[in-house]
Amino acid sequence: MEKIIEEHKQGESLVRLPKSGNTKKLFIESYGCQMNFSDSEIVASILAENGYDTTQQLEEADLVLVNTCSIRDKAEQTVRKRLETYNAIKKINPSMKVGVLGCMAERLKSKFLEEEKIVDMVVGPDAYKDLPNLLKEVEEGRDAINVILSKDETYGDVAPVRLNSNGVNAFVSITRGCDNMCTFCVVPFTRGRERSREPQSILEEIGDLWARGFREVTLLGQNVDSYLWYGGGLKKDYDKATEMQKATAVDFAQLLDRCATAFPKMRFRFSTSNPQDMHEEVLHVIAKHPNVCNYIHLPVQSGSTRILKEMNRQHTREDYMALIDRIRAIIPDCAISQDMITGFPTETEDDHRDTLDLMEYVKYDYGYMFAYSERPGTLAARKMTDDVPEDVKLRRLREIVALQQQHSLARTQAFVGQVVEVLIEKESKKSDQHWSGRNSQNTVVVFPKEQYKPGDFVLVRVDSCTSATLIGEAIGYSNMN
Ligand code: SAH
Ligand code: F3S
User: Fold this and answer.
1) Please, what are the domains in the chain?
2) Which of 65, 143, 66 lies closest to 110, judged by CA?
3) pLDDT digits (tens, 9 = 90+) for 194-215
4) How far is the CA of 312 from the centre of ligand 2 (A)?
5) Is the minimum distance from the CB of 223 to ligand 1 under 6 angstroms?
6) pTM for the predicted model, two decimal places
7) Can you give the three-state secondary structure of 52-82, one letter per residue?
8) Cα(72) to centroid of ligand 1, in Å?
9) Atom of ligand 1 minimally distant from the CA of 222
10) DSSP helix/strand/coil, 83
């Protein structure tokens, strides 16, 4: 703590701002999780230092980078399809180079270069600082690859170039990798072991965003509650830290508290929480700060303790329900969302009913639901048979989606007649006369523009709703401005 304040006082910025006004053009696009979108901003920054400005026009690009996702087979197929489009463009612009970044790059490694002739460069999530060297190789006509995973890379010293930004919300990554080893999940293999970013560099990045007019930050990690800074290095090596390092370590509750205290008019969100790593301290920090949103994304994956065990989730159905009870007790109006998987190997109708039953218990505000997709190399793929027929997976998926729809509608209906605080983000997609923003609970709110503008915190009286959107009218500014 002392050390951080000390460094802060010296005013020496760890974050360097990228150059612009370059001649070469980079077209970069991202698939998958928020972390990929955030990583692409880091990549754009590294390349801005090395001669590339971004373009939205694929046709004029000297370099095309695609940041890829491996989480489900469908995500990988989407990227393969996209490569066909690049191929067509390359016929018109033969000097265009193509690089693959992210989880597919890490998973497939040099196989990518063999399978997809269009690809010149394959770069894993921890190797982005090597991009300038890899590009040199490519420019000299050789294929280039770096898929080495790191023990300490957090890109804490890179100031991201905000891509496609509305100037209001930004992502700030705080941890990388995941150690949880859920048996269905490819992330620990593609993103490596878990490590945390230095609090000082996180605070500086937020300070820079604040100065540039941003009003909401989402702290990002595969497993944010597991955040632990003790001077650098892997989370799993914490045992080897010195007494001094342990005494000055910063966990997620402390980091969130520090961010919310340092920037009281910046609104904070975080994602994603893993039930086994979420501790009560964090709930008290959320309850304490009006600028920390009352919203927790808390994936559970299944309502059956037996399936949770097969998934290597370190909690039972009862543990999860107890955590929900604590959230409701400490933060009464907290919104909670889920991720669910249907048709994990050996899932029976009884297990599925347990999932529906858990959903009834929690009544989630919304959720992201998926049919199980076997991922090569994961423990489930190696040790279990993907034995639930596709039509059964999909039928169960339809059932949980339908139930979630009912709960989402009940949740939005409960806001009708209430006044909610909204941060205006952008014009509503459906009407140029309306603004769109979100309330603390992360529900989208639309209302007539009047004199307000993006970046304003506004009090909105909710008059009606759909299952995903609140519709209302502004009644004034909130005290967050
Ligand atoms: N902790 C992460 C989870 C990443 S994966 C985070 O930051 O969100 C996101 C979701 O994808 C998981 O919660 C899970 O519901 C789903 N998922 C992961 N692997 C899957 C697989 N093999 N098949 C289907 N869904 C999967
Ligand atoms: Fe994946 Fe489980 Fe980590 S879902 S990202 S291994 S918490």
Assistant:
1) 6-146 (3.40.50.2300), 169-413 (3.80.30.20), 419-477 (2.40.50.140)
2) 143
3) 999 999 999 999 999 999 999 9
4) 10
5) yes
6) 0.94
7) EEECCCHHHCCEEEEEECCCCHHHHHHHHHH
8) 8
9) 7
10) helix
